[in-house]
Specification:
By secondary structure, the chain is mainly β. The protein has three helices and 60 strands. The strands form 16 sheets. Strands 45, 48, 49, 51, 56, 57, 58 and 60 form an eight-stranded antiparallel β-sheet that branches. An eight-stranded antiparallel β-sheet has the order 46-47-50-59-52-53-54-55, with no helix packed on it. A hairpin with a 5-residue loop joins strand 19 and strand 20 (234-239). The radius of gyration is 30 Å and the shape is elongated.
């Protein structure tokens, strides 16, 4: 059954009913606390679990299943030993043959030790479920004995004595992958086609005394998830199947809890190449974890209402979801999500393995602890479970991973509802003096693994008291620029600034001091760039950070990747500004903000290089942390030093210079596209054009400087990345005129 306050399960990877009333009170207290807090108060509601991992014993293999209740967490899988936290493999190990039990509050093993074995092949425990009263732990998998007592892929354990129950024995002919338990019934799913000598294809139900029940929900493919609805009237089925009892319903079905007959089918609802790996419920809904393979598949989570079994929402992140769990109105999931761009989150990039969403909204919440992929397939987390102990609520995660939050930790980890101990990242700061008589303090918002709304405090000239305090929202893929202007300064004065970020409980160290001298006159070149309407303008005056601040006034900042050479001099334009150097191998910059396709645009930058390997100078691509798969609106250098401007409109459309520009001198490079077609200017002069090409690639993307994919483009250079210096990069939402461009070039010394 389901506790309506907390949404905790007692079936599947179940919970103890006796603990649920206390958990309901705890959830109410958490909700009240969250509602009364200010925006930056440690955790961003409705998240109620910190991202700080707690010290936990480890396994030497994969944890496939868990159940928890009454302060104890049971873990099953394919492993043979346990070892202490921080211990390296082979150090301090103790036997644990595919099963272990832990104190939820301390992460240490309890005295309950069971050995799940098989006469041939590899034994594994793939499913665990507690009875509602917590007195019996049901285990399923591929095994033939528990502590030497013969069984057939399913067993019942007396939790008080930690011994197999001899009065629960029934033959299951193949692996059991899912279990759910009520007071009188145990539902199972897996690979089997026969239970207790009778035909049961993939799903079955037995009494708590191991007698086969008439419940029949025959599936044509493997069963992976089974969950009883809170009212006990229906059973939710998930797996690889395409038919239940002969009726089309792929991967998901709702059946009658007594007969197994279909109540709700889902033909065409989930992609044919996708499956349901896990199901969980709360008082009002149920939630699926989906895995797919191949193109166009569905890998995310679905929320459905229990009132009519119809969809409430679904997310479309790519990266197979393995497990789901609800706590205090938040759906936590284990996956290897790598591309959530389709739902407005991060583009394709290295995997993120733990995510959180409101049960009412698929938008990702700011909760980002992480594991690695680990061993096995590998996919990282495989299973989640939760329980309370000693006034704290604990979320446990098991799987294939071998690191947690970038530290060695294998198979198991856990999180709690406090205390929050992780401080936000130190802010990256850049100063600007483009307007006489003031200093603009710009910073890249920080990242905190369990709080999106952070408080920033600015300290001036080594003062211990902040001169300005503000808040801002950020997540790891979207760290927008914030700006504050100090007008309490005079021309010729030099001032320094440092900034801290706080989640309301933990505060970062102060950023390194940045200094600037107040200008008395306006710099001509940047003033003209801004007056001509630049929507993005990077001057590269930062030092040793990931931040490229935007001087256009549009807060269109960027990320600098892989530590390029900062503050290169002499710069392209006279004045106090500096340039940046890229190595031609892996260094580049990209815009923080995803942009819609510009139908007309100008891209402008300065370059200095002697490379003979070419490379992309500036362009528009769909990815940020790896080479884009859709890429155009770019200027690149060929191996011979000639420059090419290209857009994609049915095919690659390019114009190119006849001269080379890899002579070690600064060159002003500008490309435009509008109703007049394409034009490429170098050093204030039109060098190539084509009036026919007025359209470009229609997909959204990010501006990238210094490197990106050049696959299939004409005269592709040896390198995708540009080796040389770049300065004064600007993007405009219009096609600048020839006179505007020549005026920019003329101001290089002014």
């Amino acid at each position: 059954m389901m506790n309506e306050s907390t949404g905790q399960r007692s079936g599947g990877r179940g919970r103890v009913r006796a603990a649920l009333a206390a958990l309901g009170l705890l959830a109410g207290a958490l909700t009240a606390t969250a509602a009364g807090t200010s925006p930056a108060a440690g955790l961003t509601p409705p998240v109620a679990i910190t991202a700080d991992d707690l010290t936990t014993w480890q396994t030497n293999g994969i944890v496939w299943s868990m159940a928890a209740g009454d302060g104890v967490v049971y873990a099953g899988g394919t492993f043979s030993t346990l070892r202490p936290p921080t211990a390296a493999p082979g150090t301090g190990e103790q036997p644990a043959v595919n099963f272990a039990a832990f104190d939820a509050a301390t992460g240490t093993p309890t005295g309950c030790s069971l050995s799940f074995t098989i006469s041939s092949g590899t034994a594994t425990v793939r499913a665990l479920a507690l009875s509602p009263d917590g007195e019996t732990l049901y285990a399923g998998g591929q095994f033939g004995a528990v502590n030497g007592v013969g069984v057939s892929n399913i067993a019942a354990i007396d939790t008080a004595t930690c011994t197999p129950r001899n009065n629960f024995k029934i033959s299951v002919t193949a692996t059991v992958r899912a279990l759910a338990a009520t007071a009188d019934t145990v539902y199972l799913g897996g690979d089997f086609n026969n239970v207790g000598g009778q035909t049961r294809n993939k799903f079955a139900a037995v009494t708590t005394g191991a007698s086969l029940l008439p419940f029949t929900a025959n599936a044509d493919e493997v069963a992976r998830a089974v969950e009883v609805t809170p009212d006990g009237q229906h059973v939710l089925l998930g797996g690889d199947f395409f038919r239940i009892n002969g009726t089309n319903t792929h991967a998901l079905a709702v059946v009658d809890a007594t007969t197994g007959q279909l109540t709700k089918s889902y033909p065409g609802f989930i992609h044919n190449n996708s499956t349901v790996q896990d199901i969980t419920t709360d008082a009002a809904g149920f939630y699926t974890a989906n895995e797919g393979s191949g193109g166009g598949v569905f890998d995310g989570r679905i929320a459905l209402d229990l009132s009519d079994f119809n969809q409430r929402w679904r997310d479309t992140c790519l990266g197979a979801t393995q497990s789901v769990l609800v706590h205090s109105g938040v759906l936590y999931s284990g996956s290897h999500a790598h591309d959530c761009a389709s739902m407005g989150a991060f583009p394709d990039q290295p995997r993120k393995h733990l995510l959180a969403q409101s049960v009412d909204d698929p938008k990702l919440l700011p909760w980002f602890p992480d594991t690695n992929d680990g061993i096995g397939e590998p996919v990282g987390p495989r299973v989640m479970s939760q329980t309370s102990s000693g006034g704290r609520h604990y979320l446990w995660v098991g799987g294939e991973f071998t690191t947690v939050n970038s530290k060695p930790q294998q198979g198991l980890t856990r999180f709690a509802d406090g205390p929050d101990t992780g401080a936000p990242w130190v802010p990256n700061v850049s100063l600007s003096t483009l307007t006489p008589g003031q200093i603009d303090v710009n910073w890249q918002t920080s990242f905190d693994t369990d709080d999106g709304e952070l408080t920033y405090r600015i300290y001036k000239d080594n003062s211990a008291t902040p001169i300005h305090t503000t808040t801002g929202y950020s997540v790891f893929w979207d760290r927008p620029q914030l700006t504050w202007t100090d007008t309490d300064v005079a021309p010729g004065e030099t001032h320094s600034y440092r900034i801290t970020a706080s989640d309301g409980i933990n505060t970062s160290a102060k950023s390194p001091a940045q200094s600037a001298t107040v200008a008395s006159t306006t710099e001509a070149y940047p003033a003209r760039v801004r007056s001509d309407g630049a929507s993005l303008y990077w001057r590269y005056d930062e030092g040793t950070s990931t931040f490229a601040h935007d001087s256009s006034g549009n807060l269109n900042n960027g990320f600098l990747r892989n530590a390029p050479a900062y503050r290169q001099t002499p710069a392209a334009v006279a004045g106090p500004s500096t340039a940046i150097g890229f190595n031609g191998t892996d260094e580049y910059a990209y815009s923080n903000r995803q942009h819609t396709q510009p139908t007309r645009f100008t891209i402008e930058t300065w370059i200095k290089t002697t490379t003979t390997r070419g490379g992309k100078i500036i362009g528009f691509g769909n990815l940020t942390q790896q080479n884009s798969t859709r890429h155009d609106k770019h200027i690149y250098m060929r191996n011979d030093g000639r420059l090419t401007f290209g857009v994609y409109s049915g095919s690659a459309r390019t114009v190119a210079t006849t001269g080379a520009y890899n002579d070690g001198q600064w060159h002003h490079v500008v490309a435009t596209q509008g109703t007049g077609g394409m034009a490429l200017y170098v050093d204030g002069q039109l060098r190539a054009s084509n009036a026919l090409y007025t359209t470009n690639e229609s997909s959204p993307g990010y501006w990238r400087i210094g490197g990106d994919n050049l696959s299939s483009w004409p005269n592709r250079p040896t390198s995708n990345f540009f080796a040389g210096q770049i300065d004064e990069t600007a993007v405009y939402p219009t096609a600048l005129s020839a006179s505007q461009i020549s005026a920019h070039y003329a101001l290089r010394n002014g």
